[in-house]
Structures are given as structure tokens and as C-alpha cells.
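--- STAGE predict ---
source: upstream dedup step, 1 unique chain passed
mode: sequence only
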Amino acid sequence: MTYELIFRISIAALLGGIIGLERNYRAKEAGFRTHFLVALGSALFMVISQYGFHDSIDGERHTSFDPSRIASQVVTGIGFIGAGTIIFQKHVVKGLTTAAGLWVTSAIGLSCGAGMYAIATAATIFVLLCLEIFSVMLNRFGTRNISLTFTATKADGLTKAIAMLKQDVIRINHYSVKEQHTTEGKVLKITMDVKIKRSDYEEKVAKFIGKLDGVCIEDIE
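--- STAGE serialize ---
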């Protein structure tokens, strides 16, 4: 029995690690080690929940036994880890896919801990297909949120920037203008959040930088 339980948590760690490798390849916040540990820990909690208290309740006839009592808490607990990967930055939420991946990895670990290897393997394959196929599709057809920070000596610099972005069918989500006083005189600092097609990102950003006169790009994120 002991070797079988070790096999269960080993398979969980392996499947979680495979998902983690894909996340590492994409340079995401949670990578191989995080997914490996989440799957391993979830499987271990399931094993403990199923087999860890048999000796304690064998002599107690009136003691109820619910093998899901510990495993069910994993679903709640994994939310704290997932929340740590979600970032709200400049009107954009990042890390939701990674958080969802950790949640599914935890479920895969629980499945392995329960001895349901086939469904755990199938879920891992589905996760990888989702992450890779949709990543390719998003890069080709999806959009990307970027933040532009630039300065202009005149107000018409902002007008030209907005006109150029609209001409390139770039959607402006939000922008702010601040007036700053420097040794060279008054300048306008503009921070702009825009949505741009991923496949055209490099070309349009280069065009934006090259065509604007009297505008100095400070930062692109």
C-alpha cells in the first residue's frame, strides 16, 4: 500500500511539473517548481484524507468518516496561491490564466491522490492544449494592452499622437496628461493605455516612434 501511495504522489508531481514547464517556457509568474509543489501537495492531502486516520477511527464505532474532509480544503486553500499571481496594473488584470492553471493543477493532484490516473492525464493534456493552442491563436488574432509614456512640448503633439493611433486602428483605453516645468520650459507628460493587435505590435510601435515630431518616448510597457 505504501508503494502505491508513493506512486500516486509521484504521478501527481510529474503531471504538475509538465504544466509548470510550459509556464516556465512562457515566462509566467508561477513556473515548474510552483506547479510541481501544488500537484504534489494536493495529492498528498488526498492520500492523508483517505488513509491517514483509519487507525484512529477503527476502535470508535460512532465516529463518522468523510474521506473528502481534508481534500475539500485544498480547493479553498489554492485560492490564496492563485491570488498571489494576479496583478492589477494600469487598468489591466494580469495573471488570471496562471491562477486558473494552478487551480486545475491542484485538481489534477487530487485526482492522482485518489488513484484516478487516466482522468488526471487527460486533464493535463487538455490544459497543455488550451495553453499552447490558444497562445498561438491569441498571438495571431488577439490584442495586447500596452502603456505609452511620452512628452511633448506643445499640445498639438498629443493631438497628433491620438490621430495617428486612431488611423492605425489602435484603441485608446485611457490617457492622462500632466504639465511639468523643466529647465527647457514647459512640457506635457502623457501616459496612455492602448490596445493593439498582437501581430502588428512591433511594426505599429516602431511607426509611432518614428513619425511623431516634437514628441519624446519615455517608456513602453
